Amino acid sequence: IPGEFFASSFPWLVPTAQLKKAEAIYNSCENLESMRSFFAIDIWLSEYIGFPGEVYREVITRGYQENTLVKNRAWKLSEKTADLRDIRVPVLNLCAQYDNVSPVESCAMLEKLLENPSCKTLVYPVGHLGIAMGKGKKGETNPQIWNDIASFIKE
């Protein structure tokens, strides 16, 4: 699947994203560090690469349409099977409340699917990238995310 397909599809997830982007630039234009950070992320987000067609077809069919991992708690990948019941290590499941790519309702299901008493789910008031970068809605660092990760690792 060509990268251009994704480039033309993703903006429909949040139709107002371009307006929000312009607002973010306007609000941060005098802060050089914020602008560097903003454009680094923006460039990364706009670099779409192609995706192998057969893999994409399998993810859409088995992952989304058939919901294989939820229904079977397992997914055969090539010669091996990934089985959620085999996960016995502690799991920290971080969810972003404002994530339009991986909605919190979908992410929070992991705890039930794993049947693992050592799975802990935490929800933060951030978006899709905010959870990965440890930043809040306005781009400020959210130390709570990093503190929770550090505490989980120490346990």
Please give the order of strands in the largest beta sheet: 1-2
Number of helices: 9
Order of helices and strands: HHHHHEEEHHEHH
Binned, the helix content reads: 40-55%
Largest sheet: 2 strands, antiparallel
Distance between the termini: 42 Å
Mean pLDDT level: 85
- What oligomeric state do the depicted chains represent? single chain
Shape: globular
Structure report:
This protein is α+β, with helices and mostly antiparallel strands and 155 residues long. Helix content is 51%, strand content 13%. The longest helix is centred in the N-terminal third of the chain and has 14 residues. It is globular and about 50 Å long. 5% of the residues are buried.
Secondary structure elements and pairings:
Elements: H1 3-9, H2 17-28, H3 32-45, H4 53-65, H5 68-72, E1 74-77, E2 80-83, E3 91-96, H6 104-108, H7 110-114, E4 119-124, H8 128-133, H9 143-154
Parallel strand pairs: 3-4
Antiparallel strand pairs: 1-2
Throw out a few tags for this protein.
two-stranded antiparallel sheet; alpha+beta; two-stranded parallel ribbon; 155 residues; globular; 9 helices; single chain
Short description:
The protein is an alpha+beta fold and 155 residues long. The protein is built from nine helices and four strands.
